[in-house]
Amino acid sequence: MTVFLIFGFLNWRISSSADFDNDGLVDTYVPQTYNIEYAHSLLFKNKGNFRFEDVGNGIRVIDSYAGAFADLNNNGRQDLVVSGRLKLNAEPSLRVYKNISQNSNNFIKFKLLGEQSGTYPVGAQIRIKHKNGIFVRQFEGNTGTLNQQNDPIIHFGLGRNVEIQSVQVVWPSGIKQNLKSHQF
Ligand SMILES: [Ca+2]
Ligand SMILES: [Ca+2]
To answer: Ligand 1 mean position to 94 CA, how many Å?
Structure first.
């Protein structure tokens, strides 16, 4: 099923986004909020042109107020941590979903450690440029009403046959830093 995703109608909590298949398009996990079986969480793959496909058959959690992406085993694929119940009135639990997707897409990750902007530079942006355009990620602080936190290591999926042309870091201090090719 392919749908147009309108976050405001599906979720009054905060979705979490990451490129879990490294194809360059940011995908998203939408937690749901009630102890109702049909109101389960959804995992959407970004198909491009504002179309999303629900691929979360194995991640049907109810009463789930939050989720967060992080590459927990450092293999370049974003894993997912969610809270919630697997069945109606079951005990709530924290669940970790390992990303077992198989593809040869490339990725790049950045760990930002500021000097003037602090070692946890919330609001910093990384902008990378390659043949498909300019892509931006932001170093997040806590998000949502439950303060979930995605991985502070910033991750870009690159797809295949992509050569990065430039990388720029925009620090919260306002300093713009262009990385040289040997720095990434
Ligand atoms: Ca993707
Ligand atoms: Ca992983």
So the answer is: 24
3-state secondary structure at position 114? coil
Ligand nearest to the CA of 158: 1
pLDDT tens sequence across 32-61: 878 888 888 999 999 999 999 999 888 889
For residue 108, the CA-to-ligand 2 centroid distance in Å is 13
Of 63, 66, 60, 72, the residue nearest 96 (C-alpha): 72
**Within 13 Å and on the Cβ side, how many CA atoms surround 168?**
10
Find the 173 Cα to ligand 2 centroid distance in Å.
32
Say what the pLDDT of residue 38 is. 83
> Given pLDDT bands bounded at 50, 70 and 90, which one contains residue 8?
very low
Structure tokens at 160: 């295949």
Distances in whole angstroms, Cα of residue 139 to Cα of each of 93, 96, 150? 27, 22, 9
Cα separation of 133 and 52, whole Å? 20
**Which tokens sit at 92?**
């709530």
Q: Identify residues whose C-beta is under 5 A from ligand 2, the ion.
A: 71, 73, 75, 77, 79, 99
